[in-house]
């Protein structure tokens, strides 16, 4: 059960500072979608603040809870409106719909379930078989995707800067992991605990992608959100876990601001205290730990990070050093000296542990 904490805000995958920059652009094809996205995001935050719990989206008629090991997916179409969940298009077990966004959402929800069940024996994101519900074609040129506490929501992008938000499996894995965090550590979405929240979502989003592709840690690209930007943008991805700060450098978008080491930690009031910025530091620590060990990242380092997330010793206001120390403790207690050494050295390399 989650520990008591302030309610988790609506969390979109695109940081607000990126949308703020785009909203100021002189080209209306770029600025207007960003402005509309910021307005919708604020409306959704207000709705979530007023609601103790977002309403459950509807499943297929006569749907019943599934046994552990089987997901229950339902993908809806908002028809470019903002009423959720929209029209049910594809329910669990149904064939391809022919709508690429619907079918990508369905497949990527399944890939996320598969990682958490097959590797960590977790029955959906709450551990109790929560239906995985998604809505596509949300809003007009909506430049974001978010988890609202009950379901996933995906925009189509503006076609200038962003493609459709169902394109990247790790984005869906990232957003659903916010639900796992809600159910386990309830990490406060502010400052370092908020950056840990974002980093954990990148970690498990990356693991969803690597598990789906059957990649080892050393084979993976460690890029989050490949394909999210259009070819007009000078960007490899939304974030790089191996080289934070190198994902994009574009005249319209700006430069990726993520630091890779504590000496460059961004002390800022923006973005809930830099949650999308400073997450680069624990991201790189995970990359270093995972690639220093043989085999896939979802074992070794991934198992340590998952065990730590579920450990009742993890406080909801944990700072980087608290989380790092607990990963080292968990590694020593459950995973042996080689894994412990890899974890300890990774956190030391980014300046979190001595």
Write the layout of secondary structure elements.
Layout: E1 11-12, H1 16-23, H2 28-50, E2 73-77, E3 87-91, H3 100-118, E4 132-136, E5 145-147, E6 152-154, H4 169-183, H5 191-213, E7 223-224, E8 239-240, E9 249-250, E10 254-255, H6 270-274, H7 280-291, H8 300-309, H9 320-334, H10 337-349
Parallel strand pairs: 2-4, 4-6
Antiparallel strand pairs: 1-5, 2-3, 5-6, 7-8, 9-10
Could you walk me through the main structural features you see in this protein, from its secondary elements to its overall organization?
The protein has 354 residues and is α+β, with helices and mostly antiparallel strands. The chain folds into 2 domains: 11-183, Elastase, domain 1 (Roll), CATH 3.10.170.10; 191-349, Neutral Protease, domain 2 (Orthogonal Bundle). It contains 10 helices and 10 strands. The chain has helices spanning 16-23, 28-50, 100-118, 169-183, 191-213, 270-274, 280-291, 300-309, 320-334, 337-349; strands at 11-12, 73-77, 87-91, 132-136, 145-147, 152-154, 223-224, 239-240, 249-250, 254-255. A 6-stranded mixed sheet has the order 1-5-6-4-2-3, covered by helices on one side. The longest helix is centred in the first third of the chain and has 23 residues, at 28-50. Mean pLDDT is 92; it is low at 1-8 and 52-63.
């Amino acid at each position: 059960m989650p520990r008591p904490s302030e309610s988790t805000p609506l969390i979109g995958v695109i940081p607000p500072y990126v949308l703020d920059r785009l909203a100021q652009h002189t080209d209306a094809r770029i600025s207007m979608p960003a402005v509309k996205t910021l307005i919708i995001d604020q409306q959704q935050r207000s709705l979530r603040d007023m609601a103790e719990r977002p309403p459950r989206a509807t499943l297929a008629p006569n749907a019943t809870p599934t046994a552990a090991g089987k997901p229950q997916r339902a993908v809806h179409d908002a028809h470019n409106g903002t009423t959720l969940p929209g029209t049910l298009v594809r329910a669990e077990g149904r064939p391809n719909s022919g709508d690429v966004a619907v079918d990508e959402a369905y497949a990527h929800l399944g890939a996320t379930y598969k990682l958490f069940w097959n590797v960590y024996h977790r029955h959906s994101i709450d551990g109790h078989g929560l239906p995985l519900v998604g809505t596509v074609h949300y809003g007009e040129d909506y430049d974001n995707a978010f988890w609202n506490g009950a379901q996933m929501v995906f925009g189509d992008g503006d076609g200038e800067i962003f493609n459709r938000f169902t394109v990247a499996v790790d984005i869906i894995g990232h957003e659903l992991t916010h639900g796992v965090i809600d159910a386990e550590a309830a990490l406060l979405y502010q400052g370092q605990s908020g950056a840990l929240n974002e980093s954990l979502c990148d970690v498990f989003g990356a693991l969803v992608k690597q598990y789906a592709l059957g990649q080892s840690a050393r084979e993976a690209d460690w890029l989050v959100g490949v394909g999210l930007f259009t070819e007009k943008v000078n960007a490899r991805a939304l974030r790089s876990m191996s080289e934070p700060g190198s994902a994009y450098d574009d005249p319209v978008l700006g430069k990726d601001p993520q630091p890779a080491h504590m000496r460059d930690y961004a002390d800022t009031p923006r973005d809930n205290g830099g949650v999308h910025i400073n997450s680069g530091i624990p991201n790189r620590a995970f990359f270093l730990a995972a690639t220093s060990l043989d085999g896939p990242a979802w074992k070794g380092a991934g198992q340590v990070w998952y065990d730590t997330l579920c450990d009742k010793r993890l406080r909801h206001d944990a700072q980087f050093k608290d989380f790092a120390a607990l990963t080292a403790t968990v590694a020593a207690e459950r995973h042996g000296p080689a894994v412990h050494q890899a974890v300890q050295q990774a956190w030391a390399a980014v300046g979190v542990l001595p």
